[in-house]
Known about the structure:
Elements: H1 22-37, H2 41-55, H3 60-78, H4 85-108, H5 112-129, H6 132-148, H7 152-165, H8 171-187, H9 191-207, H10 211-227, H11 231-248, H12 251-268, H13 271-285, H14 291-307, H15 311-334, H16 336-412
Helix pairs in contact: 1-2, 2-3, 3-4, 4-5, 4-6, 5-6, 6-7, 7-8, 8-9, 8-10, 9-10, 10-11, 11-12, 12-13, 12-14, 13-14, 14-15
Amino acid sequence: MKWKSLLILLFVHFVTLAQYDEATQQTIDSLKNVAETHPDDSVKINAYVEWDNLIYLAEPELDFALNQKMIEICDRNIAKKDISPSRKLFFYKQKASNKNILGLYYTDKSNYTKAHELFEQSMEIGNVLQDSLIISMATNNLGMVYKYQDFPELALKYYEKSLRMEPNADLRSYAATYNNMGLCYFDLKKYQLAIEFYRKSLGLSRRVDDLYNEANVLLNIGELFLYQQNLDSALNYFEKSYEVNEESGYASGLIYNLERIGTVYGRMGDINKSITYCSEALEIVQETNQLDNQARCHHCLYKAYREKNNSALALYHLEKFKILDDSLDNQQEIETAVQEQYQKEYEQMRLADSLEISNQQKIKEVQLQADIDRGKNQRIFLFIGLGFLLIIILLIFRSYQSKKKDNEIISNQ
């Protein structure tokens, strides 16, 4: 199962260009043949999953199509009346996973309404199956949606709930969730906590050789130092993130790294290096539909050429930036109504938490009173028992005295 479902990074999206070495392409072709021709649907599903694992980073649209196809196969089998319980369970679990992955696709497209709907559907299947792993993954991804919607406190609740639900999860999932929690603490301006969770995530990522999450964490640490104007440390972490992304071949991460490095050099006053790095990033990102990354590159170059007093190029990049920024603003307006709904949910969740705490306190008070009453009752019963025992002793003693007198009378006669 792909661990991308548990990862989050700042404004980084997937590159649609795919390049595979010959061996990987042969494997893809073989899996595609099995997925499309094998008579057993469970074998088809396994082939689709392996195929998807190889392409999901490089080809998000194909990733989307493959997961939709798997849902169709699952639904077809679940609807069969003569299907065995074990096969039905297999297809239900797979459908939950596919829904989860499609939710990530829509999250990447900033369609949080659809993403939220799909994560909820995945969680619903997990609840029916009582599968803590499915529920945990969906819960984590709902946290990611709230994080992107600027509700870090609500996101943290979901992340923490996810960890509690799957305490024996794979280290990769812990690494990704710790990274997500670090991002939330950054948004809440709790920078020390953010660094602590980033470092937890970084350590686990390196233990399991998870280059993707390692690069993300290094990037996020760099962002924190950049925000704090610690330019040397920011540059150091951005360069480390670039090296890891270069090793893994994750092109989208490289784009963001180049732009960030260019931005740091611009703030340091090294304008030529700033232009070099941001131009390289722009050249790559123009082949994609990543409007936010394109906007950042143009903004970086606008400031650099302004510093060089090259008004023509500065104006060119400023105009490009404004066009892209307006387009992104329009996308944001679409999500405003959704944010209002999430705000209501957040308030309801806080109210529910308050009621739960209040109820727990009342339960404790009732239990305490019951313990007190129980102690009183025990003492009463003890006194009653002692009273009965004393009465019995007195009766025995009086009987003994009476018999003694009777014996004395008989002896005297």
